[in-house]
Amino acid sequence: xxxxxxxxxxxxxxxxxxxxxxxxxxxxxxxxxxxxxxxxxxxxxxxxxxxxxxxxxxxxxxxxxxxxxxxxxxxxxxxx
Length: 80
Prior knowledge:
This protein is mostly helical. The chain has helices spanning 7-12, 14-17, 23-32, 35-45, 53-60, 66-78. The mean pLDDT is 89.
């Protein structure tokens, strides 16, 4: 089974589309998402990360805040 997406399919998927944004456009989009949407994107993008509330509490003793999730996503998207 082919699990790869075509470029057109990627452009239609919101998780791929956000990766094309930069600067204020990226910031505005991320701030329009709920905390759970941000966590969902992080889990999708980095399956080995610790982002869910259950994992975060177990690993760090607290949950990932919306602000920190936005910082992490911004770093992931803008790093070269």
